[in-house]
Design goal:
Elements (H helix, E strand, L loop, with lengths): L18 E3 L15 H14 L1 E6 L2 E2 L8 H12 L8 E3 L2 E3 L2 H9 L9 E5 L9 H10 L3 E5 L12 H8 L3 E5 L9 H12 L5 E3 L5 H6 L9 H10 L8
């Protein structure tokens, strides 16, 4: 009976020691995340206070919206390194929308990876590309490992859970957004998050922090029931540590 009334933890309380965040939008002036160096420093300091120990910044690369090149991203990262007040390790990759331009980048070998040829990718929120499984296959032929960002946010898959299992069989790893487990994206994303955790389909987690308002989400209570599975996926992020 006591376990039934156990207090739900706040999200930041579950962050393990040495937590490495592999998905954030803290580099200045590249996408819908931080707009300038001052905002970037404030965000990173706020994340440090919550318990983040290392960050991999992953600005969007999206045709016709944020057409960031590898050089753009590196320049933004380099300029941020010169700012005062940064006390935790910060590296960079990108979050790539799977589209035709992505295929061209892939063929050229111009992809910024999280680690060991692991590339963070996302789908459109309106519909997945018709040739999604072909893209995933081509990625792996080139020696990359696709890590799908926030699978729990693609509403067109909510009614067909088998697709998540098919994507895993196709060699796709899954990164859950931590804000999903406090209900930030709505009850359906929360429900799918729980289902993915229960099915042991989540490999890693990320904050997907864009602005200071997102920091507040980490003060909210965790709504998923499978706390142990969530803690295990958080701990798995240690793989990306510079010390690993």
């Amino acid at each position: 009976m006591l376990s039934f009334f156990k207090k739900k933890p706040s999200l930041f309380e579950l962050l393990p020691s040495g937590f490495v965040d592999i998905h954030s939008h803290v580099l200045p002036g590249l996408d819908d995340g931080s707009k300038n160096t001052t905002q970037s420093v404030e965000l990173i300091q706020g994340m440090e206070k919550l318990g983040f120990s290392e960050l991999i910044a992953t600005p969007h690369t999206m045709t016709g919206v944020w057409e960031n090149t590898s050089e753009d991203i590196k320049y933004s990262w380099t300029s941020l390194q010169e700012a005062q007040g940064l006390n935790i390790p910060l590296s960079y990759a990108s979050e790539y929308l799977l589209d035709n331009a992505f295929l061209e980048r892939m063929q050229e070998g111009d992809l910024l990876c999280l680690k060991d040829r692991m590339v963070l990718v996302e789908l459109s929120y309106f519909q997945a590309p018709i040739n999604l499984f072909e893209i995933l296959f081509e990625l792996q032929l080139k020696g990359y490992i696709p890590v799908l960002a926030h699978p729990e946010r693609y509403a067109y898959y909510f009614s067909d859970f088998k697709v998540f299992q098919q994507l895993k069989k196709a060699g796709c790893m899954f990164q859950l957004n931590l804000m999903s487990v406090v209900g930030h994206y709505g009850p359906e994303s929360l429900k799918i998050s729980e289902a993915l955790l229960n099915a042991n389909l989540i490999d890693y987690v990320g904050s997907d922090i864009h602005h200071k308002g997102h920091l507040d989400c980490f003060q909210r209570k965790v709504q998923v029931k499978n706390i142990e599975a969530l803690k295990q996926t958080m701990a798995a992020n240690a793989f990306f540590s510079e010390k690993a």
